[in-house]
Amino acid sequence: MAPRRSNHEGSIYQRKSDGLWIGVAHMGYDSLGKPLRKYVSSKKRTDVVKKLKNLRRKIDDGLLLKNEDVKVTELFERWFDDVMRHQIAPSTFSNYQTVVRMHILPRLGNKKLVELTVSDVDKLLSQKADSGLSPSTVRRIRAVLAQCLDQAIRWELVHRNVASLSRSPKMVRHEGRTLSPDQARHLLETLRGHRNEALYALMLSTGLRRGEALGLRWSDFDRKTGVLRVSRQLKREGSLLVTTDTKTSLSRRAVNLPDPMLKALLAHEERQQAEREWLGDSWIDSGYIFTSSVGTPIDPRNLYREFQAICRSAGLGDWHPHELRHSAASLMLAQGVKIQVVSQVLGHSSIRMTADVYGHILDPDRREAADAMGSMLWNTEGP
To answer: In the CATH hierarchy, which top-level class contains the domain 72-165?
Structure first.
């Protein structure tokens, strides 16, 4: 006669075909009223009793995973299809897929989620670093995996995020190259009379990103106050030029124009109006402040090529349009503008980000603080 079951032990029986002891935990019913059960097994009845008690405890504590057979590949497929394609821009979506396809799935794709460990992730990141990938790329691999595992936790497929627990590779931040005040003034002088003079002057004087400047519309410009509202960016996605939201929520901002910049933008508006009248029906009224010669948006790639040609003709060498943004921040800080204000003008997500990138420019301020404390506490004068 089989031993009597203890309370909450669940159903236990011995299978006739192979003599294996089976334990059944009842988990309620699904949406159609069908009973939900979870099974454990062992050659010994005492082992099944222990397994069943542990299983029952997990069920009662809400720690039971939905499906312990899901593999990493399956998780990413579901994550991309059910979540990420609705959450991020197509270009970012494509980038994530490339990271997963090239770097994560070849190593971890066939592994079950419940068997994935911190050691597995650390080994993956180490191998990628040893293969010659940059620290930023390795960090991107870790970040994408961590985001996906966060969703796995929400779906109750794992209890913890092993990617977040792994060690992130160190980043060596390189200071962005910036124009000196003399170089900046020389560039503006070289641009005088150029069709896109106002565009480059705006990026240099306000630190707007290339996409933000190209995405500006005349409706964003308050001519009376000299304020621009930045709320979108123009970018290329495949063969199309599209406007999307700014990089972050804090990137949506108001930017005050210097008086000379305001005059340059008003002069640019007059010039564009003359082009519109000259072309007549051939002009395409896109509403953008900065356009091609027929009124269409400016392709960011064309802007890059044009800017390089301008810099070479000015004798400055090769420069990227984004370096105008670095230059704007550096020149503002060098002129004593508070870092909090610079951070707001640039649309950074935090002051810390501004300090990390441009903190080297604040050395004189730190020296001034040290001299002030020395004078107060020891009655000394700074060097």
So the answer is: mainly alpha
